Here is the input.
Amino acid sequence: MSASPLALLAATALLTFAAAHPTRYPALRDVVCTGSTPPQIISYHTHIIYMLTNQDQVKGAIDLRQRARTFFSDYLGPDCDGRYDEGRLCLIDDHPFNISLPDGPFPVGEWSIFTPVHYFSLVVPWLFQNRGEFTLLVHPNTGCEYEDHSIWALWAGDKWPLDMSIFTQGTQTNEFNETVGDAGNPTCLSVGQACGSPFYTGPALPCCGRSYCQCDPATQRACKCSSL
Here is the structure.
């Protein structure tokens, strides 16, 4: 059955519009936050939370951030001034650490790491065991920010109340144009990136297609992704 002239005209107009407007639009990724199948996890945030009224805690939390920078120095990219879709493991630097985030949801102090999915096993165990007196919050980024910070969140230490009024329950409020594995949310490492573990010898992190994790033969350390 042939298409009507009106349908052909509409299709032509749509293609012309798409060619002239290559921007990715929110409707391209609709997330259902309350369905039987949870949405895909695009990345993680790992937060260290502390009291701002206690200057010793503020100093200790900032010292812990510097320890994390040193420990993960082989893996970290430059600090990121945003919180989402940064394309690399990075310490988030978007506010002074002696004040709370102006827009919430934390009522106290926090610093955080943007953690692509393949770095979860590297970052989270270290923070669990080195957080000291501070609270660790780990949550996924799916676009459903209310659920990400509540039913899908993982806490170690005291659980702090969050200002959930800035989110909308059951509604996608972020990550509209993003998907796991895109440039802002990688799932593997590029050639030249460190792919070993500071905890044990041998390969530990996934290298992207047509590359592999090559370690020093004698020590099984100094592992880097290399081309096949």
